[in-house]
From TrEMBL:
PROSITE patterns: ANTAR
GO molecular function: RNA binding
Organism annotation: Amycolatopsis vastitatis
Name under which the protein is recorded: Transcriptional regulator
Matching Gene3D superfamilies: 3.30.450.40, Winged helix-like DNA-binding domain superfamily/Winged helix DNA-binding domain
Amino acid sequence: MTGGHEQLTARLDEVTVAMESLTAMLDTELDLGQMLQAVCDHAVQVVPGADMASITLVREGVPETVASTDQRAVNFDREQYRIGDGPCLRAAETGQPVRVGVGAVGDLWPQFVTSAEQLGVASFLAAPLTVDEDMSGAVNLFGFGEHGFSELGTKILELYTATVVIGLRSARRYFAARELVDQLNRALETRAVIDQAKGILMAAHRITAEEAFQRLVKRSQDGNRKLHEVAAEFVAAVATTT
């Protein structure tokens, strides 16, 4: 009894260290791919019976393995994507963990039995990653033993993936904010060059701002080109002749 308690305590200590490491990553500008790879590496260490790990992200309905500890895990993921079902896709779709042994896999997904035997995988555990309405996924664990993973292993993985979801959501917000800033900067640059071209036309032809703008619009339509490209080309041409 004491031995089991000590093993559980040691396992929880490992989970705590892994989660602290992951949380520390969230406070840095570490590449998202590196963070997800670290998630796979830690998951194999902290979940009993896990021999391989991968992460599936589903964006716009398309699943993709974005990190793994073993090419065999990637190959099995791809087999699921090809068929359109399996432990990782089921977890991503339902938002519920999927824990099965090879026997249950044969009942649920008989088309995977051959692949599982070829890869030497006998146990599967997938915990969902519910990021937002545009992104879901799963952390997928594969075991070579026929243990089917334990309830404790499932709870440990769910606890760990909760931190992963926080990281993914933060990354999504960061990239969305950065894209918005880039769009605003491009809009400001575009407006500046259009205003500059309008000013040149107004001075050269003694016309109003609206008339100058319409001339630029006509050039844009005649050449089937974007307005800011026409304006930039016009400004550059004037600069070379002055």
